[in-house]
Amino acid sequence: MAAPPKLCLPITIVLVVLLSYCNRPISGAGNPPPFACDVSKNPDLKSFTFCNPSLDIDTRVADLVNKLTLKEKIGWVVSGSEGVTRLGIPGYEWWSEALHGIGSNGPGVVFDQNNVPAATSFPQVILTAASFNVSLFHLIGKAVSTEARAMHNVGAAGLTFWSPNVNIFRDPRWGRGQETPGEDPLLSGQYAVAYVKALQQRDDGDQTRLKVAACCKHYTAYDLDHWKGFDRLTFDAQVTQQDLDDTYQPPFKSCVLDGNVASVMCSYNQVNGKPTCGNPELLNGVIRGKWKLNGYIVSDCDSVAVLFNNQHYKSSPEEAAAVAVNSGLDLDCGSFLIEHVEAAVNRGLVNESSINRAISNNFATMMRLGFFDGNPSNQLYGNLGHKDICTKENQELAREAARQGIVLLKNLGNSLPLSPTSIKSLAVIGPNADDKNFNMIGNYFGTPCEYTTPLKGLTSYVPTVYHSGCNRIFCDVAQVDEAKKIASTADAVVLVMGSNQSIEAEGLDREDITLPGQQQLLISEVAKVAKGPVILVIMSGGGMDVQFAKEDSKITAILWVGFPGEAGGAAIADVIFGSHNPSGRLPMTWYPQSYAEKVNMTDMNMRHNSKTGYPGRTYRFYTGPTIYQFGFGLSYSGFKHRLAEPLPTIMTVSLETGHACQSSDCKSVDAVEPMCKNLGFGVHLTVKNVGKLAGSHTVLVFSRPPRVHNAPRKQLVAFRKVHLRPKGEEVVRFEIDVCKDLSVVDELGNRKVALGKHVLHVGNLKHFFNVTI
Ligand SMILES: *[C@@H]1O[C@H](CO)[C@@H](O)[C@H](O)[C@H]1NC(C)=O
Ligand SMILES: *[C@@H]1O[C@H](CO)[C@@H](O)[C@H](O)[C@H]1NC(C)=O
Ligand SMILES: *[C@@H]1O[C@H](CO)[C@@H](O)[C@H](O)[C@H]1NC(C)=O
Ligand SMILES: *[C@@H]1O[C@H](CO)[C@@H](O)[C@H](O)[C@H]1NC(C)=O
């Protein structure tokens, strides 16, 4: 967006002042961002080691920490960090958000008509994840980090972004499931790594520096916000070691080990009786110790205050501050630490060396971001500004991302795509059709550059008539007669239904997973009178029980569109009218309403329990009925797989001499070196488009391990998306590493290779093979 013209009043007395003011790139909120080591203001800074960009970061950090008093240090353990004027260090606001575009949730980001009025709003993450396209994840992240740097340069955003959210979408009722890449650890991990790298990696390849800093949150086992009196601030998640290590932790592990993320945020909830932000095993032990985070650990906002005030975890504020810092927390989003940690030091509960560790991690991150390298306009990315925000390319990418994520769930008699030339009138019905509330943006949002509602998108293809059909999204009153009237005379009907942030959001979990209020009644009644195809479009974060629509032969097609972002309406129309062949796959299981009635949201167990009748969670463990399964999604084309090369039917693992399993019966062996070395095989599949339209197809490779260690019944081990012309085919190659990809986590959290019969399957293709000693 271009900067608006500046008004300068020629009042003589203040002319000089005003002129210099007007010569800045932009007035008011468009000021350059704060930065340290401004030698133009203070030439003495030149001689400071910490201001010298040619020295290594550790040396600079050590120098800086050495120069600070305890009070000054404590100013840098909170998100609104305090400036140290005598050393030319300004204050810094750490809290900016960029979940699917720059969001205004944190005080670090400011949208302002006179500076940056808007930024590109990509689809909510759950829909982007449904594209199963890792290069798309990366492209979105890159566009976001460019807009982020551009906004930073004009004083509208920070450098530290607390995104992505990589919690496993364990329960369909969770209001924040929409923010996540879904229920599968592999997909979540791959999404996280691609997004984090795209936010952080610089174009000059300098790995020691960051474009902007990402943050993987909320660590860990956090996926309940507010449900039937249970609240995230006080919820104590009871999690087994096995579930922790093979479901809840893997996306975070990928973030740190493969994504090299600059930050991890600990969550509000407790895990097994301990607040995550005050848990030394989880912070010092795992993130810092095992995974070796190169960056800072931040608390969720006010999480340290919460562990004292809401959870009463410690009996004094100083002890609460101490447990957080001593557990490994570096930065408090909030003010609890600035208020109480000095007293904790004075009482001997926290050593100054721990404060030094915390601020060293924080400063190191800021140094990697160039904050201590003087004027950012002289640095890489210094030229980014207003012209780089809401660009045509980014907005087109937002539309493309929505198209790629949209999932076709039903298409009776190929009723879709509709022909734009033969449809003379289209009835558009539903509370999300002419969405005036920015419902398509989902949560963690900024102001979108533009906004194309479904009605607008559809109207750009064919003439439409519209009725909302419901008094509001809750649909307490369905306007059935009015809707039927327009439906009965139209050539086709599109119903745009579902939820919005008043139904599923942060702090708001659902109790029911059916469509709200009388939406179902409206849909069924409209379908009865329609004379042509009826297309049901479901806008939601979580799955909906739409069994009625699946079964109703008058409802010819169903699309799930997530919360598709600023260009969502255009993307929906592109899919409906066949400008884009849908290829999205559900990144989460769609359960029936009975699931929500039977299963406590508070039950964190992933595995089913036959004694209690607990059905388990996600496609990996749940065996009950589903509405739609994880990975499901249709296309306007058909695709077939066959093995391009035969696969081994026996894998023999060679154990070291004297290994216990050579003399006794073992069900599994530890997935460790040297046995794991070169233990694997290639899976080469020929994928063919057997339909009439070009399209993309995601190959999902699942494994079914032997039933030992209560292993998942099925597990995604690899995926790849390919684009194929009609009749086109391509060989897709996967390298399967037995220890990494086919191992399971045992009851104690150790990775094991199960011995016995394994199955690999891709669509209808199944391959059995034995792992033996
Ligand atoms: C402070 O440091 C001393 C010496 O290393 C150590 O013995 C003590 O346990 C530390 N105290 C805390 C609260 O970490
Ligand atoms: C959801 O939609 C209703 C109208 O149907 C609107 O009143 C409400 O503000 C929306 N919720 C949010 C959070 O925008
Ligand atoms: C669900 O949780 C409630 C409250 O904690 C408990 O009373 C009830 O027995 C639980 N139900 C099941 C099926 O686990
Ligand atoms: C993945 O996304 C990129 C970026 O939009 C696109 O160019 C590519 O075709 C997509 N891949 C497939 C197989 O659809």
TrEMBL record:
Q: Which GO terms describe its molecular function?
A: alpha-L-arabinofuranosidase activity; xylan 1,4-beta-xylosidase activity
State where the protein is found: Secreted
Chief localisation class: secreted
Task: Give the signal sequence positions.
Answer: 1-28
Q: Which GO terms describe its cellular component?
A: apoplast
What is the superkingdom listed in this entry's lineage?
A: Eukaryota
Looking at the record, the residues that make up the Fibronectin type III-like domain are 697-766
Q: Please give the name of this protein.
A: Fibronectin type III-like domain-containing protein
Q: What is the lineage of its organism?
A: Eukaryota, Viridiplantae, Streptophyta, Embryophyta, Tracheophyta
